[in-house]
Amino acid sequence: EYVIINGDFINRSDAKIDMEDRGYQFGDGVYEVIRVYNGKMFTAKEHLERLMVSGKKIGMEISYSVQEIKDMLTELISKNQLTHGTIYMQVSRGIAPRNHAYPATDVAQTFVANTKSVDRPARNMEKGVNTILVEDIRWLLCDIKSLNLLGNIMAKQKAVDAGCFEAIQHRGDIVTEGSSSNVSIIKDGKVITHPADNLILNGITRQKVLEVCRNNNIPVEEREFSLEELKSADEIFISGTTVEVTPIIEIAGEKVGDGTPGAVSRQIQELFKKAIEEECGC
Ligand code: PMP
Q1: CA–CA dist 101, 81 (Å, integer)
Q2: CATH classification at residue 256
Q3: Which residue in 29, 40, 47, 188 could disulfide with 23, CB within 3.0 to 4.6 Å?
Q4: What's the number of CA atoms in the CB half-sphere (13 Å) around residue 155?
Q5: Which of 75, 36, 30 is nearest to 49 (CA)?
Q6: Do 258 and 148 share a domain, yes or no?
Q7: Using CA of residue 245, residue 251, residue 257, residue 260, what is the dihedral sign?
Q8: Could you tell me the distance, in angstroms and rounded to a whole number, from the CA of residue 97 to the centre of ligand 1?
Q9: Closest atom of ligand 1 relative to the 152 alpha carbon
Q10: Residue 244, burial from CB neighbour count under 10 angstroms (0-12, 13-18, 19+)
Q11: How many domains does the chain have?
Q12: Are residues 135 and 268 located together in one domain of the fold?
């Protein structure tokens, strides 16, 4: 299995990261996860452009272009003979003696990438998943795909401890997003999801879902919605690169609708699948 470190393709067992890498010490960097279907990346451009924007938002101009990264990742897929799976990549502000202040701009960033073979989440997409509610305790720049994920992982662990798949976060009365997914509700046939502001990560899957809905006359509304609206929704789904469009059938032990995935969620899953087929031919 090959990985990329700073443009080199090396065996994973030979990969070394310096212990003073700022990604390791401070979580000082940004990342992306791209889905691979049929050996082809899905929405790679969107993910890589978001990586550039995340970098800019933390004052780190990423030293590769979108095309350069795309070419490296394509080669990695090929070297690892990846058919269905994910590519993880992260860029940190580089290696420097530990100091909170940014190092000089001539310090090289650390770019790493690796692949993982995974199937589509067929069962969860078919049956739906259970969730819990947790207060969103994260910082106020959730639009940045930052390496700092403590708030997210603590939320996810609460879900796991409760025997659930995902934690739905809320800031007071307002539902924000999952620990690693966006949340949408459906009420009277309309898809409602939190606006893409600083309180959520603007998921590439979320954007694709909104696009296919708009193109297929499914009404969408990007606005804040309350816990009460969540609890009284007809349907709920989460979206994300690895979960695709997964229906939520239970929140904190309470059934959503009749406790099975609803018709609109099913339709959106189909439209999303079509988008994958169009781009990746599978
Ligand atoms: N929100 C958070 C907090 C995430 O970590 C993710 C990524 N899994 C998403 C939303 C969904 O983003 P995307 O569709 O780009 O994977």
Answers
A1: 41
A2: 3.20.10.10
A3: 29
A4: 24
A5: 30
A6: yes
A7: positive
A8: 32
A9: 3
A10: buried
A11: 2
A12: yes
In sequence order, the 6+-apart residues with CB closer than 8 A to the CB of 80 are: 1, 2, 115
The one-digit pLDDT tens for each residue of the chain (282 residues) are 999 999 999 999 999 999 999 999 999 999 999 999 999 999 999 999 999 999 999 999 999 999 999 999 999 999 999 999 999 999 999 999 999 999 998 999 999 999 999 999 999 999 999 999 999 999 999 999 999 999 999 999 999 999 999 999 999 999 999 999 999 999 999 999 999 999 999 999 999 999 999 999 999 999 999 999 999 999 999 999 999 999 999 999 999 999 999 999 999 999 999 999 999 997
Q: What is the ipTM of this complex?
A: 0.99
Task: Report whether residue 184 contacts ligand 1, using a CB cutoff of 6 Å.
Answer: no
Do both 102 and 148 map to the same domain? no
- Are residues 194 and 207 both part of a single domain? yes
Catalytic (active site) residue 273: no
| Residue in this structure with the two tokens 């609460």, named with its chain if needed | 158
**Minimal-distance CA residue to ligand 1 atom 9:** 181
* 116: nearest Cα among 77, 166, 70: 77
First to last CA, the chain: 24
Q: Which of 70, 145, 187, 231 is catalytic?
A: 145
